[in-house]
């Protein structure tokens, strides 16, 4: 197997980003209007401390995974926290280290600015992802609630 390459998203990645993000949303049985795709893509390239950022993973020159992450303030630290919001690898590529490489890229990028807390969540039924997460991170035990 060739080496996985993880790099920041580039404007030229739009079609592959859209394909991967659509597959991620489909996995979670979600659809978003084109306007959300457009504004998200724009935000990924908008400078600013709290704007979302993204990485894409390639294998043999083919886009096979993506992640979005963002920084936010915390009342528990002087430094920001980093929320890894979306993480996806093409289903046929799972188990090849793509998810771990994307997580590590976010950890390293956050570390460059002194951020130590990189966190994320997944659905309790996502057994494949949870095997990876249990290997690369610690489970906090917190339970999420929302007001949707």
TrEMBL record:
Query: What Pfam families does UniProt report for this protein, alphabetically?
Result: Acetyltransf_1 (PF00583)
Q: Which PANTHER family match?
A: ACETYLTRANSFERASE, DIAMINE N-ACETYLTRANSFERASE
What top-level branch of life does the organism fall under? Bacteria
Q: Which species does the entry assign this protein to?
A: Mesorhizobium shonense
Q: Does the keyword 4Fe-4S apply?
A: no
Ranges for domain N-acetyltransferase come to: 4-148
Going by the UniProt record, its keywords in alphabetical order are: Acyltransferase, Transferase
InterPro entries listed in its UniProt record? Acyl_CoA_acyltransferase (IPR016181), Diverse_Substrate_AcTransf (IPR051016), GNAT_dom (IPR000182)
Give the protein name, as stated in the record: GNAT superfamily N-acetyltransferase
């Amino acid at each position: 197997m060739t080496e996985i390459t993880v790099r920041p998203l580039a404007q030229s990645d739009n079609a592959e980003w859209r394909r991967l993000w659509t597959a991620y949303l489909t996995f979670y049985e979600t659809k978003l209007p084109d306007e959300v795709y457009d504004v998200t893509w724009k935000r990924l390239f908008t400078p600013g401390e709290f704007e979302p950022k993204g990485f894409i993973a390639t294998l043999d020159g083919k886009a096979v995974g993506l992640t979005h992450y963002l920084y936010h303030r915390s009342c528990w630290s002087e430094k920001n926290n980093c929320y890894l919001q979306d993480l996806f690898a093409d289903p046929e590529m799972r188990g090849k280290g793509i998810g771990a490489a994307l997580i590590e890229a976010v950890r390293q990028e956050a570390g460059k600015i002194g951020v130590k807390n990189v966190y994320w969540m997944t659905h309790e039924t996502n057994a494949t992802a949870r095997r990876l997460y249990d290997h690369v991170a610690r489970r906090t035990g917190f339970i999420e609630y929302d007001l949707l």
